[in-house]
Amino acid sequence: MNKFIKNNWKRILHLAAVALFIIGTIDPLEGSVLIMVGSILLAALGFFDNQQNWTFFFSASILIIIGLFFLFYLSSLGGFGGNSTLSWWYGLLILPYPIGWLSVLVLLIHTAFKNRKQQIQNKNE
User: Fold this and answer.
1) How far apart are CA 45 and CA 48, in angstroms?
2) How far is CA 60 from CA 38, 39, 64, 99, 103, in A?
């Protein structure tokens, strides 16, 4: 088992990061911390594995972090809109979170299709 983990630690961490991202997506508000950790882990693994698209994962992670900061901050102030003293326009501060989430999702799908295409080409050669 130790030899398996030593040889495949990047793959195990990648699967864990994707699992965290998917589990957090089931409930995007309560699972927002899981989504953030999963996206940061994907960016770090891309950096250490010298992938071409690690900068996209990193920038999406930064967007998620910024959006979540404002989500938690506005929540601590009592929210926005409705009976709150804050205007609905404060909701725009949360917008980086879904943009970053959608970016990571598109990047994961793109990477999966690209890897699958390379596997098929390598199999045919």
Assistant:
1) 5
2) 11, 8, 6, 8, 6
Residues of the chain with pLDDT > 90, as a percent, come to: 48
Q: Which helix (H) or strand (E) covers residue 107, if one does?
A: helix 96-124
Residue keyed to tokens 């295409």: 117
Count CA atoms closer than 13 A to 93's CA, side-chain side.
15
Structure confidence by residue, pLDDT tens digits, 50-107: 888 889 999 999 999 999 999 999 988 888 877 878 888 888 999 999 999 999 999 9
Q: What tokens does 94 get?
A: 């949360």
Rg (CA), the chain: 18
Chain-centroid distance, C-alpha 47: 14
pTM of the predicted protein model:
0.86
Tokens of 77: 């102030």
